[in-house]
Design a protein that fits this description.
The complex is a heterodimer of chains A (496) and B (123).
Chain A: H1 6-27, H2 31-57, E1 60-63, E2 74-77, H3 79-106, H4 111-130, H5 134-153, H6 159-188, H7 193-199, H8 207-223, H9 232-239, H10 242-267, H11 270-276, H12 279-300, H13 304-325, H14 328-357, H15 370-373, H16 375-389, H17 395-409, H18 413-439, H19 460-478, H20 480-491
Antiparallel strand pairs in A: 1-2
Chain B: H1 2-8, H2 10-28, H3 32-54, H4 80-110, H5 115-122
The chains are: A mainly alpha (496), B mainly alpha (123).
């Protein structure tokens, strides 16, 4: 199937369709949703084809306009970004399917623009993952972020203000990244990642390279909401419309994590941040504090969505910690956690979306009787919650297992202790919600408006994708050995 | 030595000071429009930085005249950083546009653009 240029289709199709969407919306509003699903279907199919080809035949190099690599922009797909590409496109397809009822309930008059922005967001995220050029990555980063600011601002009362704050932080992050590109260009004269991998080992003693690395790390850390730079995340994701937070929460931060792995491990030589600089040590500390902070603040929240926001900060901490160990098991855990956390977060935020759709409040102490009215939906929440805690058959267990192995290999006992303690903390977090939803007394004073608890599930268009994600959480856990040996081991550089 | 460091590389010093002014405004100012202006100064300083790294003393625009056989690289300005900045300007203008739209939304909701007043109103 190599006669079709999948690497370019995966970017061009959503980008062009985003603008066609507005034209189509003027003609027939009802077709917009179908176009969205069609386009996301194409990207998912192409990313599947790309990953298959990469695994069988090795990396794909797609040269835009036929220019040779160090001068022209090229798209490079190796196992690492082929894998992330598949995760991003599959999750965005599943969330895209569920968007219809939520859009109709929350902002029916702005549906066309929402679908347009949705496609732009996906274009940006896929572009960040697929490109092999540092400056091109900056452009896609800004496409994804701008679409994200606009999408978040659609939401409820505090949304525009939260989105503005996110924009200030996000712009600082992107500008720092751009400065990093500039300093690296001064030193090496190249913007191409593969070219830089060859050039940089000779330039590591220079101060300019150090500055470039510092700007890169801080910029990317803001974009992926790593602990002291996470401040924008809880507000932005709480006030965003439910379908938007379901889309951006699992994907944006994971793509940021991918960029961090790409820059720290692939573009710079991996020994640079573990041995030459104390960057890995710093990363581990930030990640460890982030995990503890995220868990503790999640415990203090009354709003379910905001609680999930803080859980997300802790999860980002896991990925950063895995990178910070700087060994094979740690990096395996980090890459595996990109997939697992994407699935779990999509599932949990989709659950919040599903109960909001049926008029349930997001306050945790008002969830009594939820399992009687929505048994299947709450069962999905329980299963993905167990995965966040790290209970064996679910996928969350396996990434944590590798992270703990990485901690032991690196002899970081404190980090291992933090990882285990956070599981305990997550258990308290989720059992607090489960206890309210399953064992809380129905007909309490807060729930008088719904005295008879009839069964009232979320619509099938939400329920089926929710269960697809939940089954994914379980089955990818069972098959994680296959995924690790067939994909993830190929992504880790040989020096690890 | 120090004088040479300051005067000889004045464009980099201007870039650093502009960047810090913008950074200060983004962090310390309470008015959202002032924050936005700070963001714009911050981004503009990066343009100055990139333009500086491309330019050379006594060099000209990178267009090869007819009949020139040997090309001396130090006679021409490096065009690549300038081209990158064309793209970055587009990104910055669109960020500015989205930010202004957000400010409009905020103003319609709270009838103020002072951060502390908005935080009081939301309490």
């Amino acid at each position: 199937m190599s006669h079709l240029p999948f690497p370019i289709l995966i970017i061009v199709v959503p980008l062009i369709s985003a603008f066609l969407m507005i034209l189509l919306g003027w003609l027939r509003k009802s077709l917009c949703y179908l176009l969205l699903i069609f386009v996301l279907g194409i990207t998912t199919l192409s990313s599947f084809m790309i990953l298959e080809e990469v695994l069988w035949k090795g990396s794909i190099h797609y040269r835009l306009g036929g220019w040779l690599p160090p001068w022209g922009i090229e798209y490079v797909i190796d196992p690492l970004n082929g894998f992330v590409l598949l995760i991003v496109s599959t999750i965005s397809l599943i969330i895209g399917i569920t968007s219809k009822p939520m859009v109709e309930r929350e902002f029916p008059e702005r549906a066309i623009y929402f679908y347009c922005l949705y496609l732009l967001q996906i274009t940006g995220l896929l572009g960040i993952v697929i490109t092999g050029d540092l400056f091109n990555l900056y452009v896609f980063l800004e496409i994804a972020s701008l679409a994200g600011y606009a999408l978040i601002a659609i939401g409820e009362e505090g949304a525009p203000f939260a989105s503005f704050n996110y924009m200030i932080y996000g712009t600082i992050g992107a500008c720092f990244y751009l400065l990093g590109v500039g300093y690296l260009y001064i030193e090496s004269g190249s913007l191409n990642m593969a070219d830089l991998t060859k050039l940089l080992p000779g330039l590591l003693s220079s101060k300019v390279t150090l500055i470039a690395f510092a700007f890169f790390s801080v910029g990317i850390a803001i974009k992926m909401a790593l602990f002291p730079l996470h401040v924008w995340l809880p507000d932005a994701y709480t006030y965003a419309p439910s379908t938007v937070s379901t889309l951006v929460a699992p994907l944006t931060t994971k793509v940021g994590a991918y960029v961090m792995i790409r820059v720290m491990v692939n573009v710079f030589p991996p020994t640079f941040f573990t041995e030459t600089l104390p960057a890995a040590l710093l990363l581990r500390w930030m990640a460890g504090l982030g995990i503890l902070f995220g868990c503790l603040f999640a415990l203090a929240q009354k709003d379910l969505k905001r609680m999930l926001g803080y859980v997300l900060i802790a999860e980002i901490g896991y990925i950063a910690m895995g990178i910070g160990f700087g060994n094979r098991n740690g990096l395996t855990g980090a890459i595996l956690h990109i997939m697992n956390d994407g699935l779990m977060m999509a599932c949990l935020f989709l659950f919040v979306g599903a109960i909001t759709l049926k008029g349930w409040p997001r306050k945790i102490d008002q969830l009594q009787g939820l399992h009687q009215t929505m048994p299947l939906t709450s069962a999905a929440f329980v299963l993905s919650g167990l995965s966040v805690i790290g209970v064996p058959p679910t996928c969350g267990f396996f990434s944590k297992w590798y992270l703990v192995l990485g901690a032991i290999d690196a002899k970081q006992w404190l980090s291992a202790a933090i990882l285990l303690a956070s599981s305990l903390c997550n258990a308290i977090l989720f059992f607090r919600v489960i206890e309210k939803a399953y064992f809380g007394k129905a007909g309490n004073e807060q729930r008088i408006e719904r005295p008879i608890l009839k069964r009232d599930e979320a619509p099938l268009i939400v329920l089926i994708p929710l269960w697809v994600l939940t089954l994914g959480v379980i089955s990818l856990g069972l098959f994680s050995g296959t995924i690790i040996s067939n994909i993830i081991h190929l992504t880790i550089p040989a020096s690890f | 030595m120090t004088i040479e460091l300051i005067i000889g590389k004045y464009n980099y010093w201007i870039y650093i000071s502009l960047m810090m002014i913008g950074f200060y405004a983004m962090i310390a100012k309470k008015n959202l429009v002032k924050k936005l202006i700070g963001m714009n100064i911050f981004q503009t300083s990066i343009i100055l930085f990139f333009i500086s790294i491309g330019s050379k003393k006594g060099a000209t625009i990178p267009i090869v005249e007819e009949g020139v056989k040997t090309i001396q690289a130090n006679q021409y300005i490096n065009p690549l950083p300038h081209v990158l900045m064309l793209t970055a300007i587009v990104v910055m203008v669109s960020t500015f546009g989205v930010a202004l739209a957000l400010l409009l939304l905020i103003y319609r909701k709270y009838h103020t653009l002072e951060e502390d007043e908005i935080l009081n109103l939301r309490r």
